[in-house]
Amino acid sequence: MLIWRRSVSSHWPDTPYGAGYGPGFYSLVFELLLRLRANYLWPAIWGTMFEVDDPANQPLADAYEIVLGSSHTEPLMRAQNEFGHFYQGPWAYNLNNKTIDEYFRYGVQRAKPYARNSLWTMGMRGTGDTAIEGLGVDKIVAMLEVLVKNQRDIISEGLGTRITDVPQMWCLYKEVMTYTFQGLQVPDDITLLWADDNWGNVRRLPLRNETSRSGGAGIYFHFDYVGDPRDYKWLNNIQLSKTAEQLHLTYARGADRIWIVNVGDLKALEIPINHFMDLAYDAKTWHVDSTGDWIRAWATREFGPGLAANVTDVVQRFGMYAARRKFELVEPETYSILNYNEADAVLEQWAVLHDDAQAIYDALGEDAQPAFFEMILHPILAGEIIHKVYIGSAKNLWYAGQKRNAANDMINYVLAASADDANLTIRWNNLLDGKWNHMMDRKCIPAKLPMWFGMEKSSPKEACEH
């Protein structure tokens, strides 16, 4: 996404294909993964080509012992952008299979020296991470079965080993999951990665007669999403207790071979990422009802025992408020300005949360304040502002319809909140001498650049980011 490109370009020189997503950048990503006790990465889709942007990227991942994969829409260790850059014809296996097979063969050849730390993505979707078009479901299912057989032959021949000795994964994302109901047969040694609904609700888990598959199963989860009906990627809006509930459903049903989470712009999601990885690493300690204990342990580590209880309370309330309606989905009509004092009650909750978080910030030493601002105070301030903007807009529309002069007061209220939002961004950009400059900028752009962490986005489209 544009924000990543701005930040990366301000630190590292561009590559021949775009921003400088090379070893300087990825060494920090790999270190972060290992510190989180994660070991698996799907590099970003949009606008990047991990192995091509800098030839040192793939060997660097291997040196860090990072298991490298590719997203649900990028089979056999190749970025989808590579096909558009270097190959002719459509990304359609029924029309261009010889070219696409050659594309796969080179991916295997390039990754062969690093095969010990590779996990191969199988299958295929349409261009730009969309559904395959132009064929009926029965023909798509038949084509995918032939495609995967050919992919397995290409991997086996390219690596010179039995395919059953090669770790493979097929992410059954969106419509691909429905093909299993139409008779899609998946080889037993391929790990099935079941996907959530893009909003943190697990759609499908192994049935009792599926738990003996040698490839096992896993889950593809979202903390960030670009696609229909709307994106959400501005700020952390994850309720940790829901994450714990959904992942423990997954764990209990045996989908424990691979856990991968789409984190998009990871800076805003440090707390949910840390929580997800701790659940993945030690699901027994961090059981389904452990969220409060986990936050308290995290807060004690980060800000000391004296303020841990207060931090825990603030983080839990923020998660509840933000999860009621993700920020990108809030609209003037979301909360009623007429019935049960709903809208004003919501604003009051955010105001109290703001005051409580500010009191913690003021009690911290100067060395701890930037971290608290980044992870906790900033999203609370931003969340309060966006609710002021939309609720103020609703009141303005209502008052204007009544021909009341108070409509002008609400216009000024909304404009003041918008100014607060701009000033909050300036405050963020100036923090720590500009260390995270541009990381929280938002504007209307067509391209989205996600990143996925695991133990991966959807189709690019115009969307306004706040």
Automatic annotation (TrEMBL):
InterPro entries in UniProt: GH115, GH115_sf
Protein name per the record: Glycosyl hydrolase family 115
Protein species of origin: Phialemonium thermophilum
Taxon lineage: Eukaryota, Fungi, Dikarya, Ascomycota, Pezizomycotina
